[in-house]
Amino acid sequence: MSWLQPVTLEGPYARLEPLSHDHRGPLVEAVRDGEIWKFWYTFVPVPEKMGPEIERRLSLQASGTMLPFTVRDAGGRIAGMTTYMNVDAANRRVEIGSTWYAKRVQRTAVNTQCKLLLLTHAFEKLDCIAVEFRTHVFNHVSRRGIERLGARQAGTLRNHQTSPYGLRDTVVYSILPAEWPTVKARLAYELDKKHR
Q: Structural domain tally of the chain?
């Protein structure tokens, strides 16, 4: 049995379930909300390529390097995608990434809930020694969000990837097990504060 198995994770404000080809139509609808694939510094599938993107993520899951999720909001409506990626089972490390959300759920409790669910599973079920987050050096919104989680910047991978706009520098952040209790308390506090 693989270290990382498909699982459903659920909280009051969001549900993460294993990605499926059956989710294609609602994911297309979600990605059209805000046209977020147009941001030059991020990789979000265009509506016409959602099917191949689902297939890509599921192929990486089959190879043991990714565990992709479909994100549903509290009402059960599909709102985006996220993953455990760059899986290093031998060293019990994962990255949380390839995340995008429909505009209608941005700046709501959905992302906070998803991060709490994913981090809880990583540290408390998978016994990870580190969880990473990576983003484009120019994606300042993402960087601020990662820093608000309590993740610490580990470094910058210069000329890390190519993109249609040139070479990408990637900023790497991480959370370690000793930091997890504080991060968990902060995320729980943020969820409570949003829904008082």
A: 1
End-to-end CA distance of the chain: 42
Tell me whether residue 75 is in a domain. Answer: yes
* Residue 58 burial by Cβ neighbours in a 10 Å radius (0-12, 13-18, 19+): middle
CATH number at residue 15: 3.40.630.30
Each residue of 137-161: pLDDT tens digit? 988 888 998 998 899 999 998 898 8
Residues 170, 21: Cα–Cα separation, whole Å: 30
Q: Please give the helix or strand (H or E) that residue 38 lies within, else none.
A: none
- Structural domain including 140 reads 9-194
DSSP 3-state helix, strand, coil percentages of the chain (rounded to 5)? 40, 35, 25
The verdict on residue 2 lying in a domain is: no
Model pTM score: 0.92
